[in-house]
Amino acid sequence: MRWADKLLLRLRSLFRRSSVEQELDAELRFHFEQQIEENLAKGMSPEEARHSARRRIGGLEQIREECRDTRRVNLVRDISRDLRYALRMLGRSPGFASAAVLSLALGIGANTAIFSALDALILRRLPVIQPEELVRFSQMRPAEQMSEFTYPMFEKFRNHNTSFAGLIAYVGPQPFNLTANGQGEIASANFVSANYFSVLGVNALVGRTFVAQDESLSAGAQAAVISFAYWRRRFAGDVGVLGKQISMQGVPFTIIGVTPPRFFGITVGSYPDITLPFATWERVTRRQGDLRNRYGYFLQIIGRLKPGVSTTQARAEAEVLFDREQADSLNAANPSLRGYTQKEMFNPMLILLSAGGGAESGLRARFSYPLKILMAMVGLFQLIACANLANLLLSRAAARRQEIAVRLALGAGHARLLRQLLTESLLLSMIGAAVGLLLSSWGIQLLVGMLSRIEETVVLKISMDTRILAFTAAVAVISATLFGWLPALRATRLDVSRGLKPAGPQTEGCSRVTWSRVLVVSQVALSLVLLIAAGLFSGSLRNLYQLDLGFDRENLMLVSLDPSGSGYKSEKAAAFYRELIARVSALPGVKSLAYTNRRPLSSDGFHQLIAVDGYQPRPNEQMAAGISSVSPEYFRTLQMPLIQGRAFERRDTEKGWQVALISQSTARAWFAGQNPVGRRLGFGSAENARDIEVIGVVRDSKYNHLREEAPYMIYVPYRLDGSGGITVMIRTSVTPESLVEEVRRDIRALDPALPIMRLTTMALQVEESLGRERLIAFLSSFFSLMALLLANVGLYGVMAYAVARRTSEIGIRIALGAQRSEVLSQVMKETLMLVFIGCAIGLPAALVGTRFISSLLFGLQPTDPAAISMAAVVMAGVAIFAGYFPARRASRIDPMVALRYE
Length: 902
Hints:
Elements: H1 2-15, H2 19-41, H3 46-56, H4 60-92, H5 94-123, E1 134-140, E2 145-146, H6 151-160, E3 164-180, E4 183-192, H7 196-200, E5 206-207, E6 222-226, H8 228-235, E7 245-248, E8 251-258, E9 274-277, H9 281-285, E10 300-305, H10 311-333, H11 342-345, E11 350-355, H12 362-399, H13 401-409, H14 414-454, H15 466-492, H16 496-499, H17 511-545, E12 556-561, H18 570-585, E13 590-596, E14 606-612, E15 624-630, H19 634-638, E16 642-645, H20 650-654, E17 659-663, H21 664-670, E18 680-683, E19 692-698, E20 713-717, E21 726-732, H22 740-750, E22 758-761, H23 762-769, H24 771-805, H25 807-815, H26 820-849, H27 865-891, H28 895-901
Parallel strand pairs: 4-9, 6-8, 15-20, 17-19
Antiparallel strand pairs: 1-2, 1-10, 1-11, 3-4, 3-7, 3-10, 5-8, 6-9, 7-8, 12-21, 12-22, 13-21, 14-15, 14-18, 16-19, 17-20, 18-19
């Protein structure tokens, strides 16, 4: 009978959830035991008796399923009742519900907005077929890792590999002059190999994509594929766009297809307007010989692995092909080196293959880590919101003590009450999540707008999808658990006999106050961490704004044009430049004007290998400098001081690149301890080291980014021959913004169809270059201030509740002669003690956490005393503000009123 007892115990555990199930359990036990006894009386063995009893009670499984169905129905009914009851209770406390929903909505909305940007930039994979099969090529050099390759290298990889189902080459989006229907504009275009769309598995929404024949140049217009966004924006979604003619940099193209809406290319945030075949690269960019140049690194490569081929196998084969191409390049350059490899002649270079399913971009490199830091900060903010809400629920549970006691006295189980209270918390959290989604949509638009202002060509599209909704739901459930579990446990552990008594100031134990103070201390600690981080980011941004650029940024306007992209020949472009300069110089308010081929604080321009006469480079020294062609008035217009020698004169521009000015850092590096004026240098190899004479030294200035050290710069005379684009720099005696429309009008008067590539002020250029820092400083400051507000509310609530509980005690003390100032001081001491404990906990946590943001700081250490002191002072000020009103209320208690209250 031992086996039968175990079976019955198992059945009892299954059916003990309701009285119906318990009755069924007893009935089954009775019939089962009776059947076994009858079988034994018939002479069966114990095993046969139990087996026969199981067969006779044939409805056991059916009965069990019916009981399960009953439990399911009861569970659904109970949850429905819990939700209705929770809605009624929240409706009776609209103030509490509003405060709770607002706190949760801010936290959940912030988490959703930051996660949406993080997902779009980092987590989301390419919108292509089987992105996990894609790998990206890069090469590791001794000092750097680069992802650019030459076109001959791509051909070698593509034509001789056995590991890839397909290899594609591409150049990321770049701005070009585009003319369509007689109207000019700036459009972004990327260049791809003809198999680009087929390897990625992307089909055209309208028309077709490239085929192999599009790789060859023909006498007529070349094929072009436009993006869905450009199709809608420029052609209003007209299906008849196929076959229409457009002109890119004066080169004719025929539109053959439109890409799908979700396809943004291979680079996050790029979303190119036009995709062109590589065959047209040299005609559009006017960079003749690029496709045959074995040393022209400008394109990137992605491959799709064949089934069963590992990344290691593909990398080994790519390494062999890479070495072969390098050896061929050496042999072609110098036949005497035949038989040597690149690794033998120079430092070794290795081929790397990385997962290519995620979209890469400079935007990802710049913002992935800052967004992770912001994600951690909004996570801390959400914890503060949960702690604040838990405090509110603890106070609310004290107010609902009699209600909970009555329900317990009537037979409600602790588990049942716990579920009811957690249902209320979950309902609050879900309502907060719904409101948070609305707030997050506004936050996402704000983030996208700020990112777009930082990167001129960024088109980042973020939309609510199942991933974002799932994340929001997960945050809501976790939040409900965090802030609802402790108050629910405290509320259901109530002493029924004490809870049924009328509420009074002394009927409440001190445990809830203790837990409330623990939560307030945690809020203070977390808020201090956010305050210190926000102070560091703000101080770093302030240091960058105060940084000396090497020139005067105020009252300076920049205008960038490239008439050659609109079909201008060199002579016509030069005439256009001269006429424009004459017109703009005559405008009222223009003090001076200069022009250059390189716009400061941008990625414009290029670096060149330098050879210095009489200078022997050190091992592994990079002999390269930035080259900028400038007019004679350039340094006066930018107000860049001349340190030595002389500036350019008009006669220098007629001689070409025979003279140059160098920056201070260049002079220190290559002419240390000597006067560089009169020395000679050249571009390229040592054979050219005497081509150019140094005539002067100018002050160092920032060019690429404010965080970077001033680069080595060489300035050469700008010959106004119309061979390339130009940036006109205008120093004004009035605000530059007041001249923007006049400059635009002059350009339109010369050529209404010519697109303006860039028209801005230097002050705005500086603002854009600091866009990432401003984004981090703004958001961190916002979240820290909101956290400070929540901590203030929590601190005020705890002290106000403590004063209310001690009303009779304070009244008795005042009646016995205590001074009201003493009462005020005592309450303030308790308040400051909570803040002191919170700061003591938060300060070490901040010192550890700020180490992770050291790379984002400028001119500050993570342990900066000023930022830490300021955060502590602000927190103390908040404590005084939060504790003063409850303290003043305590000091004004009337002893007679307090005693009557008792």
